[in-house]
Amino acid sequence: MKVLILNGSPRANGNTSLGVSEMKKVFDEEKIETEIIQVGNKDIRGCMACGACGNLGKCVFDDVVNEVAEKFKEADGFVLASPVYYASANATLIALLDRLFYSSHFDKTMKVGASVVCARRGGCSATFDELNKYFTISNMPVASSQYWNSIHGRGEGEAQMDEEGKQTMRVLARNMSFLMKSIALGKEKYGLPEKEERAWTHFIR
Fold this sequence. Notes:
Elements: E1 2-7, H1 15-29, E2 33-38, H2 53-56, H3 64-74, E3 77-85, E4 88-89, H4 91-103, E5 112-119, H5 124-136, E6 150-152, H6 163-190
Parallel strand pairs: 1-2, 1-3, 3-5, 5-6
Antiparallel strand pairs: 3-4
């Protein structure tokens, strides 16, 4: 099994990374392959709604978004990690996610998603909410923990002192591992849920 983790922090070894590393320890114990991609320090433009991906099957801007899409396609779980900026996720990560989820057309059903957020103090739950919406529009079950998936720290390495936050990350990884393994067994026995033809309702007609 494989988990793909996107670290949306511009700092490769910041407090967000400390939260992610707690999760990785558990995934390693569970014998789940983990790949972490640092995206918060990349130059990623936003979606311009050109619609070219409908024909290409990928984003027209051939950058890290298309690279992540290939890895996401093969993953059983997907973790989005971000620091909090004005009660929102890092704008670079959001630009990537908008393009990734819109331009990739493979079936994401039953891939397990989890969000991780890091802040000095406030804005975690709003950011957590924002990131989870990418999963819940894509038929992806969302992994939970013993608390909202947040860890706190401002200065370099401060999150190391947040014992509750670190434990929340470990519990999240264990729950996520269990979900992925359970879904794999369920798919073996029952297959994926039956699909209906998509109904599109536009509010002007």
